[in-house]
Here is the input.
Amino acid sequence: MRLLISEPALALASPLPAGVTPVVFRVGETPGPFDIAFLSRDLNMGGARDTPAPGFAGFVAALAAEPGLQWLHVNSAGVDRPQYKALMARGVRVSTSAGANALGVAQSAVGGVMMLSRGFLGWMDAQSKREWRPATMPFPPDLQGQTATVVGLGPVGNEVGRLLAAIGLKVHGLSRNARDVPPPGFLSAGRYADLAPLLPGTDWLCLCCPISDITRNLASAEAIAALPKGAHIINVARGGVMDEAAALAALHSGHLRGAYVDVFELEPLPPQSPWWDAPNTLVSPHAAGPAAGNLARAADYFRRNLERYLAGEKLLNQA
Here is the structure.
């Protein structure tokens, strides 16, 4: 069995099981035949969803051209890219490393909550202008006792909720299916369809879900309008989950007090995007997740799935 893999990923995934021969991918070269593949994070360094790096573009082109491809493992948590959907449509099994970057994404999301709550963006603006701005009344509301609704109860959402509960927030969660026993830190765990009744009492709407037919535009203009005045939105999900125009309008009107947005419908975010100047808003370049340990964690998911694949067992995180 021949495995298409990058050199950095091969170093992390080695030693390979007996009978698996690596085909090392190099940009600009046409790889020989292969049966399975591991698309690792190093191949997309410097790229974005809508302008992929040469390594990613070359790798997925090789996948599309290989008629014998049977299984692809990807470093990411989601498989909403059209290249992955095309492979699945022709019968290729696709599995993910969902959970590998969960701690980083969750820490970034909760960091955004802390920064917005405590007024960090104002301090940073004052520092950039060398201005000393003492605190004035009214002081920021206490974070403890506020309510967060976490949309998406995968590894990221579960960790976001746990951390928010640890600093004193009341946390409700939503996912595709309701749960009789909520995850640690959560007061409830309902379905996406249960969002509307929670919105009027939600101070922090935290979007942590994959993009799907159910979650697309879940944070709609109507949903944003139903939030109480002064609420915040945290979006570490996917572009398309939130109505960006409605969120921007709510930020400018003051209905939303602030936002942290890591993902956008168009990436990279163009220089002329109104998000760069949105009031009390923290923007990051789809970078909430990267952490030094992610590469090894994704390689570990691949190794475990490789053992399962060879044994004919069900794959972890199969799409």
Remarks:
- DSSP finds ten helices and twelve strands in the chain.
- The chain has two domains: 2-100+292-311, 102-283.
- The first helix runs from residue 7 to 13.
